[in-house]
Every structure is written in structure tokens, then in C-alpha cells.
Amino acid sequence: MARHTGPVCRLCRREGTKLFLKGARCLTEKCAVERRAYAPGQHGQSAGRRRKSSEYSRQLREKQKVKRIYGLTERQFRNLFDRVRHETGVTGDNLLIALETRLDNIVFRMGFAPSRQAARQLVRHRHVEVNGRRVTVPSFPLRPRDEVRVAPASRELTMIQASLAALSRATPVPWIAVDTETATGRITERPARDAIPIAAQEQLIVELYSK
Question: The pTM is what?
Fold first, then answer.
């Protein structure tokens, strides 16, 4: 499946909830899912009259929702699941932790970009350094004590300055420390599931892929 390039509000409407794909803009704009609380397409308004969703449908929709929140393709998401299913611990928790510790998500969480899509662009365009080295792979996995910073020559970019200004009015996740003056952040610890602000039923995804 190719990456979605159309209106992201259609994805929110399809999942029936705000996915915050526009970052901070979703907090200030009237979202399409609030104005049209039904799935997009010509049959969207009749979906509510259909029979009750099956267990498979619930599992699939949960997988699609999480995949779209983090902006992964189907192959990327499945490959990530196949990797974490062999790790010790709860598979669902390990999946969300692996998604959260991707470089593009960390750049977004640190407030260097207004959305995960914008964060991927920053990484690909060589604006981000990890432990003093340029990294251009958005899926690069990070660990505790890794330092992420915006390259010195890129700190005056308008998007980065605006994102850092918005960060000063927001509450960052507790497992990340950010210095807005130097556009530098550090992962202080491995995130726990209750410290990941994503409303997801990850066990449904595990059940879907375990069939």
C-alpha cells in the first residue's frame, strides 16, 4: 500500500476519530470528523445502518488507525510488528514503544516539527542530527540517552521556530527532555505504555496479526 497523499481529514473521518495528523493545527481548527461524523465516500452516511461490526472489522480498524497516526505503510507496519513480537514483554506495548521511538516521531514529540509528516521531511532533508551525526532515515530507532538536535544551520527555519514557540505552551511527554534554546532533546528513559498519549487498543492489532 502506498503512502496516503490526499486530504488527511478523510482518514480521520474513516476511523471516526481525530488522528491529529496536522499536529497542533488539529487543536485549533474545526475538524472534518466533527462536521461530518461519518465515513467519506458515497456510502459513508449509510454505514451507521449496517449490521454490527465483526471482531475482525474492529481489529482491522484499530490497526489502520494506529498505522495512520504514525504515517507508516502496510509493509513498514507489518515488518515492525514482526520484529517486536520476538521481544520479551507485552507485544502490544512493545509495538507502541517501537513506534514512539522512531526518529520522525521523536522529532515531532520534541516539538521541532508541527506534525509527524513534517518531521519526516526534516529528517530526510538532513536537518536533524542524532548524537552529533546527520541521520536521514525517519525510521531510525532511538534508545534512552540518545540526543537529537536540529542542525545548527537549520535552527532558523520558520517551521522549526514556530514549532518550538508552540512547544513552550504545551506539555511534553515525561520521557523526553527538550532544550528549546539549542533545539536539542534527549530521551531520558524507555517510555512506558501509560506515558504514551495514544488512545489505542493495541491488543486488537496483536490479535489481528496472530491469526
Answer: 0.78
